[in-house]
Specification:
The chain is mainly alpha-helical. It has one domain. Helices cover 60% and strands 0% of the residues. It is built from two helices and no strands. The relative contact order is 0.14.
Length: 90
């Protein structure tokens, strides 16, 4: 059973790209609080966060692309309404 993502057992779950966008938003809010701190440690953490934000953005694009491929090939997901998964097995 998945804890966060939509699945047969978790019909109230989220799409991967939605979770990643929420994490990115939280990180941006946190970065805003330390952007003017020029101590070495703060700069190091900010640099790491910027790299993570870039990777999150790439991941969001990949997850969105996967959703678009599935939507084009099989139409919108009906698994939340008890339908079969579009790919794989339930």
């Amino acid at each position: 059973m998945t804890k966060f993502l939509i699945s047969d057992d978790n019909t109230d779950g989220y799409k991967l790209e939605d979770i990643l966008m929420a994490v990115r938003k939280d990180m941006l809010a946190r970065c805003d609080k330390v952007v003017d701190d020029h101590r070495t440690e703060a700069l190091h953490v900010m640099n790491n966060n910027m790299k993570i934000l870039g990777l999150l953005s790439e991941s969001i694009n990949l997850a969105t692309d996967s959703t678009n491929v599935l939507n084009r090939a099989f139409g919108p997901s009906k698994s939340a309404d008890g339908g079969e998964p579009r790919i794989g097995k339930s």
